[in-house]
Amino acid sequence: MWIACSSSYDTASMSSSFVFFILLIIMKRNTHCYLELMEVKDRSSTLLEYGEPPWIFKGSALYQLHLVKAETARAFIPKDCRLVEAFGYTLGGFFLASYDDSPAGIFDELVVIAGLVWNPPTSCAWAARVLVGSDEACLHGRKVVGLPSQVARFSKKITALPQSPKSKSSSFLSTIGLRASSSNYRNHMDIEVTEIKNQTAMSICNINFNATVSQQDCKGWMGPFIKMSLPNFSGRTKYNSNLLKYSCQIECRVRAVKPAKVSGPSALDADKENSSEDQRSNVESAPTGTKRNFSISVMLSKPILALEFNHLKMRVEAPTTVTACSQNTI
Asked: Which of 114, 158, 194, 215 could in theory staple to 128 by disulfide, Cβ–Cβ 3.0 to 4.6 A?
């Protein structure tokens, strides 16, 4: 009698354990589904706030191209993508924009471009870091476009400088938008970019450049009107693991200007030449501070060309998912 009761008790205990195990599986599955649903809702709400693509941005920008060491750029590029390089360098730089009309309103943006990734028959830029003066723009960049976006503060200071007289030759070059001489300049612009994370401010860089008369009163010649397309790769971040591709269709007045002077934290200036060995591993697995330093290293690389975009209208298409980068090299 005791044996029979014990057997019945064991059977009931096993049944209860089995039911409890099934309930755990269901709860875990429902929790996973709930988290996926929340992620979809979060992405949908971000899309709703920004509106339907294409997204239009209007304002002005400085597009500066740098020679970036290939080993530095590779720290940001996924291993299955091929860097466009020659003699140990790739073409990177930065895109410093001030938007007075955008889906996120008025804000400033600094896109640090690590280099170019091969995408036959052309190439795509890869952003090392995107600093924006808008929480909404940061969230949209992370979730939807797959960008390494961070919120930042842009502190601007303009200093008036005496304007030297123009020569006949400089006047002609300025007219066709090819003169980058300081004889055209009246004001000196100083922009300090500070990254904000968890209520902590971290200095990224200081950008110094000359503001032209045309930027101030719009009476000078701003260069020819052009249309151009800037294709980009993005993704492979903790916010968006997919490899994405999107394009920026740009219409603007463009002219060559004197390259901006970029300075970074003094500690980084001293150490940037000693960090090449550490840069060979992918940046996404590196600490946040290390990734930030790599980005500053790109900003501090050698400038070769600076273009000023006025009356800028940038049309950004929705990103598309791609399977893999090309394995070809040039």
From this structure: 114
SS3 210: strand
Is residue 208 within 8 Å of 185, Cβ to Cβ? Answer: no
Q: Kind and range of the H or E element at 171? A: helix 168-175
pTM for this model (two decimals): 0.76
CA distances to 48, 51, 244 from 104, in Å:
12, 10, 22
What gap in Å lies between CA 277 and CA 86, rounded to an integer?
A: 20
Report CA-CA distances (Å) from 303 to 109, 178, 259, 263. 19, 17, 7, 13
CA distances from 47 to 51, 73, 236, 242 (A): 6, 30, 20, 17
CA distance linking residue 113 with residue 251, whole number of Å:
20
Q: What amino acid is encoded at 110 in this protein?
A: L
Measured CA to CA in angstroms, residue 40 lies from 43, 44, 240, 243 at distances of: 5, 6, 12, 18
Contact 296, 75 (CB under 8 A): no
State residue 177 phi and psi, 5-degree precision.
80, 20
Q: Which of 93, 94, 116, 99 is nearest to 55 (CA)?
A: 99
Structure tokens belonging to residue 239: 């916010």
Going by C-alpha positions, the residue among 213, 239, 212, 272 that lies closest to residue 68 is 272
Q: 76 exposed, middle or buried (CB, 10 Å; 0-12, 13-18, 19+)?
A: buried
At 65, which amino acid appears? Answer: L
Q: What is the pLDDT of residue 222?
A: 84
Regions of the chain where pLDDT drops below 50: 1-9, 11-12, 14, 18-23, 25-43, 180-183, 185, 213-216, 268-281, 283-285, 329-330
Q: How many angstroms separate the CA atoms of 51 and 45, rounded?
A: 10
Please state, as a whole number, how many other Cβ atoms lie within 10 Å of the Cβ of residue 10. Answer: 10
> What sign results for the dihedral spanned by CA atoms 170, 175, 176, 179?
positive
pLDDT at 52: 92
